[in-house]
UniProtKB/TrEMBL annotation:
<dbReference type="InterPro" id="IPR000212">
    <property type="entry name" value="DNA_helicase_UvrD/REP"/>
</dbReference>
<keyword id="KW-0347">Helicase</keyword>
<keyword id="KW-0067">ATP-binding</keyword>
<dbReference type="GO" id="GO:0016787">
    <property type="term" value="F:hydrolase activity"/>
</dbReference>
<dbReference type="GO" id="GO:0005524">
    <property type="term" value="F:ATP binding"/>
</dbReference>
<feature type="binding site">
    <location>
        <begin position="196"/>
        <end position="203"/>
    </location>
    <ligand>
        <name>ATP</name>
    </ligand>
</feature>
<dbReference type="GO" id="GO:0000725">
    <property type="term" value="P:recombinational repair"/>
</dbReference>
<dbReference type="GO" id="GO:0005829">
    <property type="term" value="C:cytosol"/>
</dbReference>
<dbReference type="InterPro" id="IPR027351">
    <property type="entry name" value="(+)RNA_virus_helicase_core_dom"/>
</dbReference>
<keyword id="KW-0547">Nucleotide-binding</keyword>
<dbReference type="Pfam" id="PF01443">
    <property type="entry name" value="Viral_helicase1"/>
</dbReference>
<dbReference type="GO" id="GO:0043138">
    <property type="term" value="F:3'-5' DNA helicase activity"/>
</dbReference>
<protein>
    <submittedName>
        <fullName>AAA family ATPase</fullName>
    </submittedName>
</protein>
<dbReference type="GO" id="GO:0003677">
    <property type="term" value="F:DNA binding"/>
</dbReference>
<dbReference type="InterPro" id="IPR014016">
    <property type="entry name" value="UvrD-like_ATP-bd"/>
</dbReference>
<keyword id="KW-0378">Hydrolase</keyword>
<dbReference type="Pfam" id="PF13245">
    <property type="entry name" value="AAA_19"/>
</dbReference>
Amino acid sequence: MEPEQEYVAMLYGRLDDLREQTSKRLAQSLRQSGGTPQMRSERDTSVAMYTDQLAQYSAVENGLAFGRLDFHNGERFYIGRIGLFDEDKEYEPLLMDWRAPAARPFYLATAASPDGVRRRRHLRTKQRKVVGLDDEVLDINSAELGRNEGLTGEATLLAALNATRTGQMSDIVATIQAEQDTIIRSELNGVVVVQGGPGTGKTAVALHRAAYLLYTHRRQLAKRGVLVVGPNSTFLRYISQVLPSLGETGVLLSTVGELFPGMNATGREPTEVAALKGRIEMADVVAAAVRDRQEAPPLVEVPFDQDVLRLDRRMISEARGRARRTRRAHNEARRTFAREIISTLANQVVNRLGRHLLDSADIDDIRRELRESEDVQAAINKLWPILSPQALLTELYANPKRLNRAMSKFTREERALMERSPDTPWTPADVPLLDEAAELLGEDDADAKARAERQRRQAVEYAQGVLDILDLEDDADPEILMATDLMDAYRLAERHGVDRYETAAERAAADRTWTFGHIIVDEAQELSAMAWRTLMRRCPSKSMTVVGDIAQTGDVGGATSWGHVLSPYVMNRWRLTELTVNYRTPAEIMEVAADVLASVDPELVPPTSVRETGVAPWVAAVSSFDELPSLISREVAEIGDGKVAVIVPAALLSSAGQAVAEAVPGASVGNDLEEAQTVVLGVADAKGLEFDSVVVVDPAGILAESPRGASDLYVALTRATQRLGVVHTGDLPNVLARLKA
Ligand SMILES: Nc1ncnc2c1ncn2[C@@H]1O[C@H](COP(=O)(O)OP(=O)(O)OP(=O)(O)O)[C@@H](O)[C@H]1O
């Protein structure tokens, strides 16, 4: 252990040197001021680069080096979170980045196929101290009997799997298994689907793949960024530390609901409404809703100049036809529509006044007056209003007549489901519809232009004002300042004020039309067809990693087959990969869950648990759920320091949650995974998470609550890393009969 400690201490020394150097460079860059705009922009880039580097050096502090490979030819290297080099010895590698091609045997070499490796060593460290070593000699003759054959670094792996959970997902960089490594390093292009049962490491693989892709294709991806999509904000918080611990900070984590900047769509709605909004036909509904706002009533009367002008349906339809034929988005095509209407109205005015009495300047004046007339503008606004996506949908949902027209192909009941009053909060299922609307409506660039023009005018006025003041001073040197000089000075100052280095992820988060270099979708089975449409729009290159488990689909609008979901966008050009080993759930618990899976579909095969705990799941029949707090207290005592989840049907969440939170110290309802020792959750919120101990309450309630009840129960049962309890009233559902035995 001593020599390893020395080597690891040397690596930390090198890391400290790098930190110091970078801090100095950062301080130097920050001290520079002024210069040409280009110099300032270069300075901003250096500041950003050094800041990122410092963040990376801090992030890799824990477990900086975790492995060593010894080869038969006498070569040896250490493997860690980042690459470190010896500057004094021609940049000889001291530590190899785990993502480098040469580090691959650390994950793939086996006794049967050693790839030149003699020994693989796992270093376990705590802070900067080496606290343990696990060696594997890759010699087919010395392979221990009964050893779990397929596993790499088994001792270290099992130690990681048995560790107490913290409420935050940790990285698996030291113990990535061969089937996972192949997916992590699979090529950037195209769509790769990672199908796997619960606990097979799909989320872990997806995040390590993001880190791998950024390392391997940095130039390509740093500019456009990588997006990781997760099912809800609790889950995103749970996984949020994994990429930073791998030294990667520039990845945007988002739910689909957050992809519309400025919108916090956290409203709730009945599942059948969300499912309806998720159907692909909704794209046609939104398009119809936009067309419905380009109205052509039989007659519109426009007061003008003590007269009344008339627009009949034919005139309006003609203008509308021209605007539509531009194929521009609604707000952008409005200019064409307005021009046509003004032209029609101008014709009427001219005819009334007598065309032969007017010259072209008079006609221009008439057009201008028409354009400026509030009555004319109001008429155009009514016939072709400027619309925001929010306004379009709010008015659609609130107006049964509009819904009838836009949803003519839907049943009366379905139309009724969509109705809601204007002050209802937006829900996640609204976001893809808002996104669709934003595409069809386009920017209202007249507004943006007016704003820019206003700013320009203000700048000129400001410059002129300063010049006027200077003019008053007798000794002012007229050579020194001209209004235009001042303008430039003003603009530059202003530009410098807003110039700020942002990562691709930060810029992407604020821009609805941002397109990413790669998108990773986790719990992808939950996404509706409309959500897929939104995501595909954000990734024109269709370079994606799609991670999920069809058997866990809980959302009624979610996926039942990957081909069905993906083929509209990439036909059959996607690659299916599968993970088959369950690292989370012990065999004793998985046996119970497997019966539930068979009830979802007898063809589905559960993943194989990598370990047993020797602890059988417990079951408690109670006469009422009032007994829950005392059962949970007992379980908390059993688990010691670990985390306990109480998973309940949505209908029980508030009552059971309150009872447990009041009676059990350190318990809370919802998503406080890090602080609380015990959390009470509905199944949907438990998706993707894991706990040392799980108590599933009212399984019959979970089964009955949704058409996908069996999948929900399967998800709930597979969240535990150590212990499982089931609490029920009445009869235990048949699918859990094994628990009675
Ligand atoms: N190679 C590995 N080394 C160490 N731990 C691992 C490894 N693979 C997976 N794990 C652990 O197994 C657990 C389950 O992983 P993860 O959450 O990624 O699974 P999942 O397939 O996404 O599960 P689910 O479908 O239930 O959400 C995590 O604690 C993860 O750290």
